[in-house]
Amino acid sequence: MDLTRAAAGALDAADPLAGFRARFAGTDDDGPGRLLYLDGNSLGRMPRETPAALARVTEQEWGGGLVGSWASWIDVGTRVGDVVGTGVLGARPGEVLIADSTTVDLYQLLVAAAGARPGRDVLVCCADDFPTDRYVVAGVAAARGMAVREVPADLDAGLDPAVLGAALDERVAVVVLSAVAYRSGALADVAAVTAAARDAGALVLWDLSHAAGAVALDLTANGVDLAVGCTYKYLCGGPGSPAFLYVRRELQESLRQPIWGWFGQRDQFAMGPVYDPVPGIGRLAAGTPPVLAATAVEVGARLVAEAGIDRLAAKGRALTGLLVALADEHLAAHGVALASPRGPARRGAHVTLAHPAAWQLTQALVDRGVVPDFRTPDRVRFGPAPLYTRFVDVWDAVDRFRGLLEDGGWTGYPEERARVT
């Protein structure tokens, strides 16, 4: 593999997605000291179309149409949900809803799924999953008198399917797992895990937060029953943008979610005395949809759909493959180790590197114009979002990292624990 900067530039010249970069704010600077943003798996860049879309809703629909605009707002959760579902997730129309946060959506679907498996008293999750997932599982289990089985996972390689298989039995109601591990980027075999759980009579609730928009997902083909995910990472919906939830069409009528709000009611404006959930994905709605935030989500999701999830996934593998190869070539001699799966088929769209001084290195990198993020215990995580990240951006980021290691410029930074004081 040619690891020169010229070779990286040639990859950019041949990139069929290269034109999308200009459609995002902050990508104009091409100078040698430009900001290298490699944290797209935490917060995606803002699409240039987003301010105009928000202005249209605020100035024309809210400012001019006032309450009359609710005719076009009331179905925003399902309308934008279909954009995400059909354009990003490989779902069918009517299977995805935009509403609330990932945590709230996870709670709703977990309670509903547990209720759909009466007589089973165990919830399974991964000990290394994102904290909110584990917390929600623990809280639901405590409220329902259920037990939790936390299966261990390798910090870098992810969950071993055999270990998960050993945890599945006739007591398990629901398994909660991430499609892409938030720390290492390890990619789960969604189809195989879903099938194994189904064979055991359990449902799987997938967290797609680090996958949606960067990993090729086909929820229909993979037989997925339930999923949630955020929209502010690869979908570029903006800070705090609402999450999505997915329920396979054939499962929808058997679920009763715990939050009985009027937006999930069958005859919403009859204001009736008894809750009767509407058919379809709308039964998972609770309160008034976040119209402005959902508008921003729609812009980002349409960009992802236009680019094509298969092409984005292929570029993501190429970007992370280049990053791994450059780290081997230039950083390993300085004590930096790969903390993600090496094989591209086992990896999502981010790469994590381990070093004892990862916290200090992360802060020093930011000061040198490279934006990754830090993850415990000693990881620097790079998320080169394929919609707008170039191969030369990856090359330059590793080059600056190498320079930092060679000149020791990170040694004056305090240890991570000082951050909390």
TrEMBL record:
<dbReference type="InterPro" id="IPR010111">
    <property type="entry name" value="Kynureninase"/>
</dbReference>
<feature type="binding site">
    <location>
        <position position="102"/>
    </location>
    <ligand>
        <name>pyridoxal 5'-phosphate</name>
    </ligand>
</feature>
<comment type="subunit">
    <text>Homodimer.</text>
</comment>
<dbReference type="InterPro" id="IPR015422">
    <property type="entry name" value="PyrdxlP-dep_Trfase_small"/>
</dbReference>
<dbReference type="InterPro" id="IPR015421">
    <property type="entry name" value="PyrdxlP-dep_Trfase_major"/>
</dbReference>
<feature type="binding site">
    <location>
        <position position="210"/>
    </location>
    <ligand>
        <name>pyridoxal 5'-phosphate</name>
    </ligand>
</feature>
<feature type="binding site">
    <location>
        <position position="288"/>
    </location>
    <ligand>
        <name>pyridoxal 5'-phosphate</name>
    </ligand>
</feature>
<keyword id="KW-0662">Pyridine nucleotide biosynthesis</keyword>
<feature type="binding site">
    <location>
        <position position="232"/>
    </location>
    <ligand>
        <name>pyridoxal 5'-phosphate</name>
    </ligand>
</feature>
<feature type="modified residue" description="N6-(pyridoxal phosphate)lysine">
    <location>
        <position position="233"/>
    </location>
</feature>
<comment type="pathway">
    <text>Cofactor biosynthesis; NAD(+) biosynthesis; quinolinate from L-kynurenine: step 2/3.</text>
</comment>
<keyword id="KW-0378">Hydrolase</keyword>
<protein>
    <recommendedName>
        <fullName>Kynureninase</fullName>
        <ecNumber>3.7.1.3</ecNumber>
    </recommendedName>
</protein>
<comment type="function">
    <text>Catalyzes the cleavage of L-kynurenine (L-Kyn) and L-3-hydroxykynurenine (L-3OHKyn) into anthranilic acid (AA) and 3-hydroxyanthranilic acid (3-OHAA), respectively.</text>
</comment>
<comment type="similarity">
    <text>Belongs to the kynureninase family.</text>
</comment>
<dbReference type="Pfam" id="PF22580">
    <property type="entry name" value="KYNU_C"/>
</dbReference>
<feature type="binding site">
    <location>
        <begin position="130"/>
        <end position="133"/>
    </location>
    <ligand>
        <name>pyridoxal 5'-phosphate</name>
    </ligand>
</feature>
<keyword id="KW-0663">Pyridoxal phosphate</keyword>
<dbReference type="InterPro" id="IPR015424">
    <property type="entry name" value="PyrdxlP-dep_Trfase"/>
</dbReference>
<feature type="binding site">
    <location>
        <position position="207"/>
    </location>
    <ligand>
        <name>pyridoxal 5'-phosphate</name>
    </ligand>
</feature>
<feature type="binding site">
    <location>
        <position position="262"/>
    </location>
    <ligand>
        <name>pyridoxal 5'-phosphate</name>
    </ligand>
</feature>
<comment type="pathway">
    <text>Amino-acid degradation; L-kynurenine degradation; L-alanine and anthranilate from L-kynurenine: step 1/1.</text>
</comment>
<feature type="binding site">
    <location>
        <position position="103"/>
    </location>
    <ligand>
        <name>pyridoxal 5'-phosphate</name>
    </ligand>
</feature>
